[in-house]
Amino acid sequence: MASVTPTEVETFLIREYVMLPFLIKIVENNLDKMKSGDYGRPLQELYIGITTKMIDRINADLTIVRKSLRDLRIKIWEDKSKAGVGNAIYYRYVCRGYEHELAILREQAKAELGTRLGKYAQRLEDELTRG
Fold first, then answer.
1. Gap between the Cα atoms of 71 and 17, Å rounded
2. pTM of the model
3. Count helices and strands in the chain by DSSP H and E runs
4. N or C: which terminal CB in the chain sees fewer CB atoms within 10 Å?
5. DSSP assignment letter at 5
6. How many CB atoms sit inside 10 A of residue 16's CB?
7. What is the pLDDT of residues 74-111, one digit of tens each?
């Protein structure tokens, strides 16, 4: 009999599906600020290029996550009935026919997004230095 609780991989994919769009939004907001700011042409173009590449990488990862979840028949949606309740963001998901809830504390999400942003920046830096 299949387990009711999601596996470690399924849990990872569910969390990625929830967190990556937030990360994209943060990076896109920073990109908009860079485009409207005056940082000096060469640096501004460099920052915009790197930031655009980062958004592309995050979107590519999100595409893989979405496909994996679709293959696993896992459906996820934001729980609008709990919007604004407490200090968390709530999601519901169905995995192997069972419905579950995922609550992410806003402070925890901010910290996690900062860590993820650092990892994407490190990946880009590694690629540039390997060049």
1. 14
2. 0.88
3. 3, 3
4. N
5. S
6. 19
7. 999 999 888 777 889 999 999 999 999 999 999 999 99
Among the residues of 1-88, which ranges form H helices? 8-36, 41-71
Q: Which two tokens stand for residue 92?
A: 């519901």
Burial class (CB in 10 A: 0-12, 13-18, 19+), 38: exposed
Q: What residue type is 25 in one-letter code?
A: K
Residue 86, CB half-sphere, CA atoms under 13 Å: how many? 10
Residue-wise pLDDT for 53-79, tens only, equals 999 999 999 999 999 999 999 999 999
Rounded to an integer, what is the distance from CA 88 to the centroid of its chain? 16
Which amino acid is located at 55 in the chain? I
CA 120, CA 54: separation in Å to the nearest integer? 7
- Token readout for 9 is 């991989």
